[in-house]
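Researcher: Going back to the complex we discussed earlier. I've cleaned up the inputs and rechecked each line, so this should be the final set. Can you rerun the prediction on the complete assembly and write out the structure?
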Amino acid sequence: MSSTEVQTERIVAPARNILGSLRLPGDKSISHRYALLGGLAAGKSRFTNFSSGADCASSLACVEALGAKVTRTAEAIEVEGVGGVFTPSSNPLDCGNSGSTMRMLAGLLAPQQGSFTLIGDASLTRRPMERVRKPLSQMGAEIELTEGHAPVTIHGKALKAMDYTTPVPSAQVKSAVLFAGLQAEGTTIVREAVRTRDHSELALRAFGAQVERTLESVSIVGGQKLQAIEAAVPGDMSSAAFFLCAAALFPQSNLIFDGLGMNPTRATLLDVLTALGAHIGVLNLEDKHGELVGTVQVNAPADGLTGTTISGALAAQLIDELPVISAIAPYTKNGIRIRDAKELRVKESDRIALVAKNLRAMGAEVEEFEDGLDVPGGQKLRGAVIDAGGDHRIAMAFSVAALRAEGETVIRGAESAAISFPEFFDLLDRVAER
Ligand code: S3P
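Model: Rerun complete. Updated structure for the full complex:
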């Protein structure tokens, strides 16, 4: 959030139950990739159910500034791509709050001709960018950072393919290297120890590129051209996470999601909720441009959620869901222990510190570790003033915790939900019985 923006407060009252059916706006990660690759491709792409969040609007605005033609209507977003060659913009490209935009765009622009500067808001300017500069430089890119951070200045150069093993599990870094590899000479290979979300691989294929995959690597031959597509973006599982966790708290709950993105690299929360005792039903699975989409039903266990440990690969795969999992942890019987999640400290906020602070504000006991949290179960929370810290997922996670608290909760900085999910509070009011 910029320092001039006004913070809004939202009061969340406790609920008696969660009931209803929802069709959620398009997945943020997929929308970014469709915007960026549609911007590079030849021809006019058309996307329905494109993410309504401010982050994906940043990706669209950037490709627009780079020469793509973007048309926004109530039904769809159309992107007429530049056919492989972006026009350097004399103004800096504003990535807003979006790490995905900045990191993936760096990969897309490093092999282009001309100079480009990527900037972001205060939160994005604090986030680590060396993780993309390093591999792209190894391919021959010329990228300047300020002490490892944005602004990111790229002087486009012809790149050479490389074989890269990602040091931290990061789909954004993997994507940056693949997007550069698409335009480099030779075959670029990315290897990862933990398989992160694979939307870039699927989107590249949807736009006509050949991408080879093994269990631990992805490779792409440089010099391939992308062609425009028409696509409906699946509902966002990471947005559904707030409602899935809310429903899991109420024994009489029944919540159904239609058209929800069920990509296996994104659906780990369903396994966690099942392990906690919730009943999850999945039906009508369909493949849309390689992305699985389906109907999901959640019902809570009659006698409360149990507890679990999330560590190792699971922590990486659940990285965006950990704030809401932590926020409902006090209401479980045995508590939730999170480890190997140090990456949470370099998200839109330090999510470990902010989750701990806000849980404590609600009266919970919680222990903070460098790479995680221990949240004991069997706790009662009371309504409190929550500091969202300009972080959309913190604002929404604590709105969910508020549903089972005693008394009302004030979410300070509630406007940040609009980064990924502007409809969040309205939909919460729709499904929460008070
Ligand atoms: C994303 C990857 C993840 C995730 C972020 C979106 C993506 O970040 O936390 O919200 O769309 O590729 P990292 O790549 O930094 O893990």
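Model: Worth noting: The pocket of shikimate-3-phosphate is lined by residues 29, 32, 100, 170-172, 175, 197, 319-320, 343 (CB under 6 Å).
Researcher: Good, that matches what I expected from the previous run.
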